[in-house]
Amino acid sequence: MPMTEQATGAHHPQPRPRSGGQSAPEHVTGAQSLIRSLEEVGADTVFGIPGGAILPAYDPLMDSGKVRHVLVRHEQGAGHAATGYAQATGRVGVCMATSGPGATNLVTPIADAHMDSVPLVAITGQVASKAIGTDAFQEADIVGITMPITKHNFLVTKADDIPRVIAQAFHIASTGRPGPVLVDIAKDALQARTTFSWPPIMDLPGYRPVTKPHAKQIREAAKLITSARRPVLYVGGGVLKAKATAELKVLAELTGAPVTTTLMALGAFPDSHPLHVGMPGMHGAVSAVTALQKADLIVALGARFDDRVTGKLDSFAPYAKIVHADIDPAEIGKNREADVPIVGDAREVIADLIQAVQKEHSEGHRGDYEAWWKDLSRWRDTYPLGYDQPEDGSLSPQQVIERIGQLAPEGTVFAAGVGQHQMWAAHFIRYEKPATWLNSGGAGTMGYAVPAAMGAKAGAPDRAVWAIDGDGCFQMTNQELTTCALNNIPIKVAVINNGALGMVRQWQTLFYNQRYSNTVLHSGPDDVNPQARGTRVPDFVKLSEAMGCYAIRCEDPADLDKVIEEANSINDRPVVVDFIVHEDAMVWPMVAAGTSNDEIMAARDVRPDFGDSEDD
Question: What pTM was estimated for this model as a whole?
Answer without folding.
Answer: 0.94
